[in-house]
Batch of 4 targets.
Target 1
Amino acid sequence: MHTRLDIGDVSVDIHFKNIKNVHLSVYPPTGRVKISAPEHMTVNSVRVFAISKLQWIKSQQKKLLAQPREMPREFLERESHYLWGKRYLLELHNAKGKAEVSVTHKKIVITSQRPLARDGLSALMDDYYRESLRAKALEFVGHWEKRLGLTVNKLFIQRMKTKWGSCNPAARNIRINLDLAKKAQECLDYIILHEMLHFFVPNHGPKFVELMDQHMPHWVEVRRKLNATPLSHVDWTY
């Protein structure tokens, strides 16, 4: 069942599901509010819950609206692109052989037999980001598997509209946002640990915070850094 409530100037989408706890989310870029609630709850009960969280909701919406956005990449010579939090200038080469992306000290170089349209260049970059992200993510997963004494069955990489990562504890699967390849590597490490700890604790309560503090004492600062970086220019409609 799905319904919508207006609480003052805040609209809330409510989805009733076969779940145990209430989940509140505020999504970029405009601060859309969604509440997933157990099927046994009434609309009025959800309204009371939303009112109790109204100050927090407005605070999150304000942060999202103030957050900088990436400009769409045009894939022109000397355009800025990012890899692992570092800025590179784009260089386009034409040469025989397979189209590929390479990285030097200050440049990201795309080489192809003939000039490519923007979509072709973008697809090559996404492939490079995906390969780089998977390799580094598997390193971090292996580290935390040993540290936490658990196994991740599958790691999925995709362009996610509203999250940096998600997980399925029952299946022992993790999904991470492709755009993490553009952020500092410690941000990827933080997201992987975050999702793997959800295998133990399903929510973000005191026990979850305790585990984060134990395994990554500086995680709050890393999260702040990640959330302060520009969001992707993609349409975040969800």
Target 2
Amino acid sequence: MSEAALPPLSQAPTAPLRVAGHFGELMQGRLGVGGPLALISLPCPVLSVSVGGRDAGLLGPRRVQALCAALGLAVPGVLPALSASMPPGGGAGSSTAALVALARWLGFNGPPEALARACVQAEGASDPLMLPRPERLLFAPREGRVIEALPPLPRFEVLGGFLGEGQRTRAEDQDFPDIADLVARWRLGPDLPTMAALAAESAARTLALRGPAGDPTAALADTLGAAGWMIAHTGSARGLIFAPGQVPPGAEDSLRAAGFSQILRFTGGGA
């Protein structure tokens, strides 16, 4: 049976279980020409995959079997329903969050690094959602490993949403710009203006290489006085970065007028 033909999952869990997603990346690209693909995730507490509710068809049998094999778990006869609050292909981590939720539902409580590697074996890529403080990690998503720890970030606020068609991650896709110079500056411990500028530069390089053309996020950041902006480097998530409490009145309406959907706000960074 193909993954697309998998029947809806059923059976409610014995306890609520929720795995937070992320909202694209503060930075993503290659570490030098021919270097590994690396990213700095932007955790998003307001988006998640939950066990229970209306099943979203997030996982098919191949990925379930691969995950269980990688973690040494028995494939259960009945699986839980998994529901997502983020759109498919949005770049908000729904696939990884679903795998993490399933692993935890099945009782896995081993090292998060092992879970990251298992997610890669299941679908060829992973977001670092299972790791603590992923915004402080330079992470290799096609390998499921932490490249290095990074300094803490200043407190900031994000206003964003989803723009245009979703885009699924393909494991073989490594056509991203070189960001080694940006990572070198990030390692120094950026203040908010520097962090926001580096995130915007990473986003701009990816849009220039991969499209789509005419993305309005940079112009919105200028118009609304944001410190910078960011994107899901594969996906439709787009966000403006502000100092805490500095989102201007009516900013949500500006995003809606530009075609954004599912407008959201959340904070990040801090000790």
Target 3
Amino acid sequence: MKKMLTIAGLAAGLMMSAAQADDTASATDEQLETFIAEATKIFEKNQANPKKRIPDEVLSEADAIMIFRITRGGIILGASEGAGVAFKNNIESWSPPAFYTVASGSLGLQIGASQMDLIAVLMNHEAEGILDDPEIQWGVGLEAIAGPTGASLGASTMPKADILLYETTKGLDVGVAFSGGIVKPNQKFNAELYDKEDITTAWILGSRVSMPAAAESLTLLLRDYSYQQKKD
């Protein structure tokens, strides 16, 4: 049974401030490529588990997908806690990746959890708005629920939520403290990856830039899973 993910019931949270989610830190091309490689592993691991796999129909209907790795009290691959990468579903293919950070609010882990891999599937235009508008908050006006799992939805219907969440914490599965966080582009990382200072997420997610070699494997996986079901 799907459940709403809220702060209630979580014993402890990882509070994220704008200062903690530093989107001005530098990273080398190698570090950024490693970040994308880790996102690929997160997606592959999730899809290899029948109990966690995102159904093909969900990916087919998705507007975009975001993949985060969140660590309690640590730095993630050269970026602050809450860094992630997003891909947009452009009907016949998936876009190159754009980097994002969680700028504020709370996105936390339960007691005893040290690491969480989070996949957020953005299911409509309203949810996709968080990729462009830093004033749109996760959990405020956007319904986020645990997503359905399995190779196919079968007889079940497509969830009506704005955002479907899939997450695994190292050692155990927990709920997400998901309230008021702002996702904003990491301009520094995007500029470094694409070697263009004034690049925008609209250009990246609109597939107006070349696909980085490091992202080819993940975008092909997204294509294979999502386009097994014909998109209307």
Target 4
Amino acid sequence: MSLSLSIAERLTRARGDLRMGVPVVLCGSGEAALVVAVEALDAARLADLHGFGQPVLAITAWRAETLKARAYDSDLARIMPPADADLAWLRSVADPADDLRTPMKGPLQSLRDGSADLSRAAIALAKSAHLLPAALLVPIQNALNLAAENGLTLLTLEDIAPALAALPPMDEVVSARVPLAASNAGRVHIFRPDDGGEEHYAIEIGRPDRAQPVLTRLHSACFTGDVLGSLKCDCGPQLRAALQQMGEEGAGVLLYLNQEGRGIGLANKLRAYSLQDQGFDTVEANHRLGFEDDERDFRIGAQILRKMGFSAIRLLTNNPRKLAMMESCGLHVVERVPLRVGQTAQNESYLATKAAKSGHLL
């Protein structure tokens, strides 16, 4: 009997390992490396890794631009740490929290020869674990034996690249009637991906006709705005206004997608907030952390809508990207319904940045 793990199972295990500071073995392009996320690394583990050889620090091109490091690989930079680089130095390169206080980290020496495939996969793994996109890689030999002897998760580029790019199948787990302030005829559906990832929710108002375009909102989870009533964003007011409009019309579907902080996770969102307090706008803060403007995957919403039997929608949004993504996923957007609520003195510049840099129709 075989108990070998699928790529989805190994990916889920690898994300957990990285969050705990446990190395993962990556193989491909004729090479192999031990990979750890810098954010979760401790001094003892760093000392152990040095016993295997010279590490390389992989950061995204956005982070490299902030640090004035050469990104010879276009989308990332492979940095050779100096001989005396300790944990504090590695974290200062990965995390921009103290950039303004200690802006000089280098000069940083970037590699320009050899393949960057392992580094690219390591950064993608760190992102998928909602960690800072900075990874330390130590080249190794006999990867299979090393992984087996130490109980480490092993991934190959052949497996990981398509698995990270693909949208995992998602099935409905359960649904139940939930009377809401916006409508007594509320029903909550729970959808769970088969890769062990985060669940997503569909709040159905009334009994929408599957043969007609349904009023729809794709709402990304925002703990600070939706739960705490933060004034830094307009998420909470948008959530409540969308449900209210659906209640008034008697039908609608609000998808509550667990993609906090534009897909970078709550911890990284709060890091971005700290950078905004230093004077950077929301896009600049994401870039300094090493992320894209928006890391969310709206294909999740399209998959859920199709699972629920919808093929045409009236989309409550100010974000043209959502319109394009729904159409590309085979959902016909018959109307964009504006959702302009929640402007405050505290989020005025945030909304202006979304309009100017992210194309939001505000």
